Structure formats: C-alpha cells, structure tokens
Amino acid sequence: MSVAEIKNKDRVINELMLFIRKVLSEPEICEKAIEIARKHINDPNADVLIADELSSTTNVKIPVEHSDADKLFLQVLKDVVRDETALY
Hints:
- The chain is mainly alpha-helical.
- 76% of the residues lie in helices and 0% in strands.
- It contains four helices and no strands.
- The protein has helices at residues 3-25, 28-40, 46-57, 68-86.
- Helix 2 crosses helix 4.
C-alpha cells in the first residue's frame, strides 16, 4: 500500500469520526438523515438530493464534490433505509 493510499484512508477515517461526533452530540441529525434518505432513495440522483437537503436542513454540510467519506456515509444511509424496508 502506498503512502498516498494510507493518507487517504486516514483522512476518510478522520472525516467520518468528526461526523460521528456531530451525530452523537445532535441525535436529531440521524433521524432527519434517514427521513431525507427515505424521501430520495429511489431518485436517479439520490446521493445529490440527499446531500443537498441534508446540508440545507442540518449542521451536516456535504459539499457538491463528495469526498470518499461523504460517499461512504451516503451509501451507509441508503443501506439503512433499504434494510428497513426489507424488514416489512
């Protein structure tokens, strides 16, 4: 593994750690994020729509150019919603 790959993984982990801290300090973000994901999950541009609405309605700010951590968070969020619907 190259130094650049290690640094990128460290950056992603640090970014996700900051996000997790934010969610734990403001638990309503989790509920809001899942609600937004439910609304947009079947849209062709779901990641963009979820990120835009989440950024405009919460303290979570996802830039237009999604980082690897942003993409990972959006994927996990969509997986949670899909798992939730699969249970019914």
